[in-house]
Amino acid sequence: MLIDRIDVMRFLKYDVIILGSGIGGFTTAIHASNFDKKAKIAVISKLHAMRSHSVSAEGGISGVLYPQINKDSEKLHAYDTIKGSDYLSDQDAVELLVKNAPKEIVFFEHLGVPWNRNEKGIIQERPFGGMSVPRTAFAADKTGFFMMRSLYDQVQSLPNVDIFHEHFATRIFRTKDAVGVFTIDLATGKHSVVYGSSLVIGTGGFSRIYKITTTAHSTTGDGIALAYNAGASLKDVEFVQFHPTALVPNGILITEAARGEGGYLLNKDNERFMKRYASSKMELAPRDIISRAIITEINEGRGMKDKDSGLEYVYLDLRHLGKEVINKRLPMIKEICIKTIGLNPEEEPIPVRPAAHFTMGGLNTDINGRVLDIELNHVSNLWGVGECGCVSVHGANRLGSNSLSQCSVWGRIVGKEVSNNTHEIKNEDVKELEVLAEAEDSRLKEMLSKKGMYTVYELQDEMKDVMEKYFYVYRNEKEMKKGVALLEKILKKSANLRIEDKTHIFNTNLRDTLEFLNQIELAYAVGVAAYNRKESRGAHSRTDHPKRDDKAWLKHTILAKEGSGIKISYSDVKITKWEPEERKY
Ligand SMILES: Cc1cc2nc3c(=O)[nH]c(=O)nc-3n(C[C@H](O)[C@H](O)[C@H](O)COP(=O)(O)OP(=O)(O)OC[C@H]3O[C@@H](n4cnc5c(N)ncnc54)[C@H](O)[C@@H]3O)c2cc1C
Fold first, then answer.
1. In terms of pTM, does the model score above 0.85?
2. Closest ligand 1 atom to 45 CA
């Protein structure tokens, strides 16, 4: 039975609306609530909050906890991060990250995260790629799960925070003084507008534009695309991180901690090939370098091939670590290998290849997480936090374990910011929101009734094939030109979609279609940004421009919507102490 949903549409007023309940969104909610106990806060999540992608974070969170014991310093953490970013990170943001990360690890300790400890009782830190010393705190290989569980418990105890589970945001509205989000309650199909003074986007990355990815199905970049359509600009979206060790054939992540614990990468000749690419760091070189090394091995005939999927791979060998290390430090990796491909890593090497894992780019934000437009002005009342907010700490290549610190550090910063932004919402703003909501309601009805030519699943497959083929680890002008043209075609076809399920209760066909419309917009943006950057830097590696070119390209790519097309601009990279130098490991 079709319901005339405009009749039942709810208008819910809050002071702070947080879109996303991952580590970024939840930490923002806790800090906003602490800074202003009277603020009414809504957290909206298209999933049950505890299914947010952050639960799958494995290896750990970076932060200098014991400088004396580990011979570490904030300065060294900053240097590693900036060098790892191939000098594209904004150094003032990196300095803020490294200064505050240790405090956030202690904050999670107080929330109840069971960090691994040594026999003296101090929190253990493990080595991670591109880090000079061990500085990654961890809870076995289930760090994200434990962090999310403690955050969820805490958020539930806050009387001024409401969680809207399984509410899918389809549009962001902005009026003079208000911001609003149009949502579908997936369980009932009912529409709501949640509006208020401040909106924080914490919807994660968009690696699901690729075919093979380590990320959850939900990682479709919705909030980035919605804000982009509401006037926000995008930054550095061409930099997509390919994690070197995704399990073949299913793409599930084999955490970098497996190499941190001493795992080897081997080619078909049983050779530790990393000696040719990063002789000092070997398997603990940054991810962009290892991914290129693996693809080079494969391209030069030293890989292996999975018969069923046709995917080529190399080996990650953990056998020499022994049962005790594998069972104590990497229990989930063992379980994943046994349960999904029937391989016990204590006895056999693991087949791995690079897969899309993290998006360094996203919403263009300033150092306080405020979203910017293409002129670098604030987009009023809008913030970005977590993976979706490009505050530029990761630059062209993120170091593993720096994302959870970024989510936590900026959760606190943005929580404080929004607690200072509560203001009156006038009647005229509410009236305008009502008009915008009716238009959105009509758009959704139209989508459901349209007899379009394509299903979302056909076009999504086409998009993923294009991304995998033309915008993978190595890129070049000729291929990317083809890729951009194909993405343009898919974009055009996406106006002609057919939704076959017309019902309202958990209409996953409608949800998938809305997600795809966000994905294709971002895939096109990645294509345009990558095509235009004529150099190799971090994860953007071009065979036709193999060198980094600081003279021409030490700058951020900024994109904004212009009609149905894209406007492109560039902005300066903030250098504070570390002048760009050759990146050697
Ligand atoms: C397998 C894996 C392991 C990782 N391990 C580590 C690690 O050990 N250390 C590290 O630093 N980093 C790690 N990362 C990266 C890190 O986990 C992520 O960058 C981080 O968890 C992202 O958190 P987030 O809060 O930004 O978003 P997410 O956790 O992705 O949450 C996004 C939220 O947005 C909501 N949402 C999205 N779209 C909508 C919509 N349309 N309407 C309503 N709600 C919406 C979702 O429901 C969800 O609540 C890993 C990544 C992967 C893929």
1. yes
2. 44
